[in-house]
């Protein structure tokens, strides 16, 4: 049985500890969560000569993790004083292209925090640029109510889940073709799914507790398991040819 290869988008950052100049960063907790679920994570650099569809060749799943704010110009607004966009100007487009290509090719996608927000924006949705200073979403654990008939509910095996939350932006308008799969007690959208694509998008950070909480681990396991199905399907086609 082959090990599914999961592409994880890296964030181009101007300063990384231990490097003289800029670099590409992905949370170790995210990468370790993929490994724990049985996948091989491969970091994708935000710049490259090949189109997104080509970069996905040989990959079985895509994970777009948290990071800087999505540029508000992508949803028709100017950046507010609290908005902090990516260091690399093409970061948003890189990740947007990777998500679109993965959905087009039928590759399973897991989008976390920034990835969740970018997915919404790319489908015509909008964001609240800065939540109130006392918002429980900024750095806390809160409950999320999950839609009983959602893919997410079947994956985590529950319709209520405590989640690790630290974000200062949220969805104001849900994008086209997306459905809300989870809400915080204050009504903030915490999970999205697509009408047709194999995709789970969540606002919280499952990597924070995936090592000790089965429900959070199950989210990464879903990505890897679906990626394995895709990999085995492709192997079967190659053998048949």
What does it look like?
This protein is an alpha/beta fold. It has 6 helices and 13 strands. The strands form 3 sheets. A 9-stranded mixed beta sheet has the order 4-1-5-6-13-12-11-8-9, with helices on both faces. It has a two-stranded antiparallel ribbon with strand order 2-3. The longest helix is centred in the C-terminal third of the chain and has 27 residues, at 214-240. The protein is globular and about 50 Å long. The two termini are 19 Å apart. The mean pLDDT is 94.
What is the residue-averaged pLDDT?
Answer: 94
What Rg do the Cα atoms give?
17 Å
Number of helices: 6
Class by SSE composition: alpha/beta
**Termini Cα gap:** 19 Å
Low-confidence stretches: none
Helix-strand sequence: EEEHEHEHEHEEHEEEEEH
Shape, per Cα inertia axes: globular
Number of strands: 13
Beta-strand content: 15-25%
Helix content: 25-40%
Quick structural overview:
29% of the residues lie in helices and 25% in strands.
Layout: helices, strands, pairs:
Blueprint: E1 5-9, E2 11-13, E3 23-25, H1 28-36, E4 40-44, H2 52-55, E5 61-64, H3 91-105, E6 109-112, H4 114-122, E7 126-128, E8 140-146, H5 151-156, E9 160-165, E10 170-173, E11 178-183, E12 189-194, E13 199-202, H6 214-240
Parallel strand pairs: 1-4, 1-5, 5-6, 6-13
Antiparallel strand pairs: 2-3, 7-10, 8-9, 8-11, 11-12, 12-13
Primary descriptors:
241 residues, alpha/beta, nine-stranded mixed beta sheet, 6 helices
């Amino acid at each position: 049985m082959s090990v599914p290869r999961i592409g994880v988008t890296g964030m181009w950052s101007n300063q990384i500890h231990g490097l003289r100049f800029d670099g590409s960063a992905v949370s170790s907790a995210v990468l370790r969560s993929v490994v724990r679920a049985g996948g091989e994570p491969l970091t994708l650099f935000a710049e490259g000569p090949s189109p997104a569809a080509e970069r996905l060749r040989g990959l079985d799943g895509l994970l777009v993790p948290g990071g800087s704010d999505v540029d508000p110009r992508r949803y028709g607004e100017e950046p507010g004083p609290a908005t902090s966009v990516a260091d690399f100007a093409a970061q948003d487009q890189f990740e947007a292209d990777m998500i679109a290509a993965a959905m087009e090719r039928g590759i399973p996608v897991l989008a976390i925090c920034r990835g969740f927000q970018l997915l919404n924006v790319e489908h015509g949705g909008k964001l609240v640029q800065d939540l109130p200073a006392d918002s429980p979403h900024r750095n806390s654990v809160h409950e999320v109510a999950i839609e009983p008939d959602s893919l997410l509910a079947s994956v985590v095996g529950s319709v209520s889940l405590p989640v690790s939350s630290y974000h200062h932006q949220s969805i104001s308008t849900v994008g086209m073709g997306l459905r809300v799969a989870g809400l915080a007690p204050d009504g903030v959208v915490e999970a999205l799914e697509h009408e047709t694509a194999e995709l789970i998008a969540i606002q919280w950070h499952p990597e924070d507790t995936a090592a000790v909480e089965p429900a959070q681990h199950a989210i990464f396991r879903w990505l890897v398991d679906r990626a394995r199905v895709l990999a085995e399907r492709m192997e079967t086609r190659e053998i048949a040819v």
